[in-house]
Amino acid sequence: MLQLEKVEKSYVMGRSRLHVLKSVDLMIDRGEMVSIMGTSGSGKSTLMNILGLLDGYDAGAYHLDGQLMKDISETRAAVCRRQWVGFVFQSFNLIPFKTAAENVALPLYYQGVSRGKRLQAARRQLERVGLLEWSEHRPSELSGGQQQRVAIARALVSRPKMLLADEPTGALDSATSLEIMRLLQEVNGEGVTVVVVTHEREVAAMTQRIIRLRDGRIENSHESPADA
Amino acid sequence: MLDIDTWQEILDTIRANQMRSFLTAFSVAWGIFMLIILLGSGAGLSHGVAYQFRDDAINSIWVFPGQVSVPYKGLQPGRKVQLTNEDHDEIETGVNGVENVTSRFMIGGRLSVRYRDETGTFDVRSVHPGHLYIEKTIMTEGRFINPLDIKDHRKVAAIGQKVATALFKDVSPLGRDLEINGVAFKVVGLFTDEGAETEQEKIYLPISTAQRAFGGANRVGQIMMTTGEAPLAETQVMSKEIQRRLAARHTFDVEDARAVFVNNNNEQFERFVKLMAAIRMFVWIVGLGTILAGVVGVSNIMMIAVRERTREIGVRRALGATPWSIVSLILKESILITSVAGYAGMVLGIVTLEVAAGFLPKDGFFLQPEVDLGVAIQATVLLIVAGAAAGFFPARRAGRLRPVEALRNE
Lengths: 228, 410
Fold this sequence. Notes:
The complex is a heterodimer of chains A (228) and B (410).
Chain A: E1 2-13, E2 16-28, E3 33-37, H1 44-51, E4 59-64, E5 67-68, H2 74-84, E6 85-88, H3 100-109, H4 115-128, H5 144-156, E7 162-166, H6 174-189, E8 193-198, H7 201-204, E9 209-214, E10 217-223
Parallel strand pairs in A: 3-8, 3-9, 6-7, 7-8
Antiparallel strand pairs in A: 1-2, 1-4, 4-5, 9-10
Helix pairs in contact in A: 3-4, 3-5, 4-5, 5-6
Chain B: H1 4-16, H2 18-52, E1 60-65, H3 85-94, E2 101-115, E3 118-127, H4 131-134, E4 137-142, H5 147-152, E5 156-160, H6 161-168, E6 177-180, E7 183-193, E8 202-206, H7 207-213, E9 222-226, H8 232-250, E10 260-264, H9 265-308, H10 310-318, H11 323-359, H12 373-400, H13 403-408
Parallel strand pairs in B: 3-8, 5-7
Antiparallel strand pairs in B: 1-9, 1-10, 2-3, 2-6, 2-9, 4-7, 5-8, 6-7
């Protein structure tokens, strides 16, 4: 599904260079559910951004479904994201002035799907995450767990091959976190590759494999959740 | 480009940011409103001035007698100058470029005029045929004074519409006899005048007849002439020539500005034309300044909007929006707001002018404030283009935002 070879990434911070990813090799197969763990500053968010084509890298190679993603234009990246990737963020990132259904329908807007069909598909996704009756509510009227489920519905509405979740439970209590992770497991069960970035052991334990990052290097890419 | 979905999306964002959208719209509408009001006021002033000039020919020179004020060739100042028929003839034949010339002999005050049992007092002017062109008199029936009337001292009169209604009621006055101070004159013409209403209460007589009948000898009160198509500089030469010839005939210093007064209406009009041009220019500068302020306002507010929406833009990018789709979203929003607000401001401005015009006095210096619809539309289109340009820079900034950076923005 996706493959990283000797990927390097550094940021220029004023005069100094911050070397964030150092020769990262990584392979994630289709249908896997993996978690990326590491302390803050270990480079896990950067890695996730590169996987999601939200950010570029300096050296090495990243193949997504066999295609090399290197120095691609913003427009191409947008088109690829649309086709391949669904995002779930720690702070949900729902658009506040849109209803739940409109938020979920948004990715389809960028795929040129008509409004009627978009909203229909959005309702199907909301039903799947158990929030159909909340379709016409705005995010501010929903609880954190509900907002995250709307965000998951939004990530899934365009039927992506891969779902990238950046600290999806970071803003939720443990009971709600468990719910969200169960939902992600369900999604994975339907064949979607799921990558979760987290620093919570309980969350990582619900995935099949843990990739551990330390100081921009992969410390262990095949850690079993049982050892976590 | 113009699909309903895109506009739905834009309307959603406008609705979500009502205050911001309203402020943007207001600054635009205000700009165009002020421009329309200013242009209308400029036009109103122009019309007012044109109205003040409507009575008399603009291309004319008027000569009035005065008093000698400088000693000359041993003659003391204080002597009054009396213009005569000979002065008239000298100007008519001697000065190049004179088109129609007339003198006026004042019979003095308003005279009592009678037709059968009807009497009234009217202003009687005795003139040459050329007077027709000086006062812009419009003949509606019959004819004006002609050269034969002058030559043969005919007792004929041309009367204004108001005189006719006052004295003749329903009968046609042509060919009937009027008595002016006891002297009978045959009515040969009926006229109207675009100037003040009192211009239609006049009676015109041949100057030669009046001089003889009312004891005027060869004296005239003033001499007026039109200057045809002659440009300003040429008419100024004509004024000088008139002054020179009268100075020689009446023995006063050519430089004596108070012996005779030679008023060149061409100069007056030129002065007004320049003043009007200056006012128009001023109006445009202020108006464009107002529009520029509106444009800067739009740009500023869109800039803030982009900043406020950075995170939203990041989300949209993550969900598959291309940079161009972000640029076009912001641009279309700014164009939509400026178009609607610009149009509203234009309509409001025009309506305001129309309403104001109804309350203005009909003969002042400020008349019929109006704005050329073409100009109004051009200005509005200009504002919309400027609004698009104003939205362009914030939009480009939004399009260039990297999704990661946009998402990091809290």
